[in-house]
Specification:
The complex is a heterodimer of chains A (about 110) and B (about 120). By secondary structure, chain A is an all-beta fold. Helix content of chain A is about 0%, strand content about 50%. Chain A has no helices and eleven strands. Helix content of chain B is about 0%, strand content about 50%. In chain B, the strands form two sheets. In chain B, strands 2, 4, 5, 6, 9, 10 and 11 form a seven-stranded mixed β-sheet that branches. A four-stranded antiparallel β-sheet of chain B has the order 1-3-8-7, with no helix packed on it. Classes of the chains: A mainly beta (about 110), B mainly beta (about 120). Chains A and B meet through strand 5 and strand 10 of A and strand 5 and strand 10 of B.
Chain lengths: ~110, ~120
């Protein structure tokens, strides 16, 4: 299985801050990497697919980059509705695997 | 737009079989791969299996011996059976659809709301 790791596991930030979350795969996954946002009691919501493509309807303050084994999700200016947990996921090969998540909370 | 709704018993006894159904509305089940994904309370996400509308499927090796996934195109439903459950199978179970039809290795852009299943006697 491809192992996904994320750092940090949690972070505290203020509205307006620039936030960067890192995801690393245990082997190269090209750009088969996707980012999700999950709020308590809700299903995950797709933000970024194929490492850097913005899902329709997602604000442009979200961006993704990377290829191979190292990826980043950036929120350029954190908004109140962005406080949530963020997961990366690889679809390069089955079993599809997710990172352990990064919880973003209010400083 | 396409919506997914999971259904099934919220409580299952240890050693019994967990059975869930995902009903697809607002669109056809055809041409897509449909996945089940679960999330234990307070923990991360685990992909369980997918099935194509034609019936071809793949499952997570960690669960393969206990998982059966099936599709009913006439009812627009995908079903999951998980046998010999234990407390470790307690989780919210989601069904999800990838962005593009005919693609397995794609992001999941449509999710059901999830259904909580507790394994307890």
């Amino acid at each position: 299985d491809i192992q996904m790791t994320q750092s940090p596991s949690s972070l505290s930030a203020s509205v307006g801050d620039r936030v960067t979350i890192t995801c690393r795969a245990s082997q190269s996954i090209s750009t088969y990497l996707h980012w999700y946002q999950q709020k308590p009691g809700k299903a995950p919501k797709l933000l970024i697919y194929a490492a850097s493509s913005l899902q329709s309807g997602v604000p442009s303050r979200f961006s993704g980059s990377g290829s191979g084994t190292d990826f980043t999700l950036t929120i350029s200016s954190l908004q109140p509705e962005d406080f949530a947990t963020y997961y990366c996921q690889q679809s390069y090969t089955t079993p599809f695997t997710f990172g352990p998540g990064t919880e973003v909370d209010i400083k | 737009q396409v919506q997914l709704q999971e259904s099934g018993p919220g409580l299952v006894k240890p050693s019994e079989t967990l059975s869930l159904t995902c009903t697809v509305s607002g669109g056809s089940i055809s041409s897509y791969y449909w996945s089940w994904i679960r999330q234990p309370p307070g923990k991360g996400l685990e992909w369980i299996a997918y099935i194509y509308y034609s019936g071809s499927s793949s499952s997570n090796p960690s669960l393969r011996s206990r998982v059966t996934i099936s599709v009913d195109t006439s009812e627009n439903q995908v079903s999951l059976n998980l046998t010999s459950v234990t407390a470790a199978d307690t989780a919210v179970y989601y069904c999800a659809r990838p962005r593009r039809d005919g693609y397995t290795h794609d992001a999941f852009d449509i999710w059901g709301q999830g259904t909580m299943v507790t394994v307890s006697s």
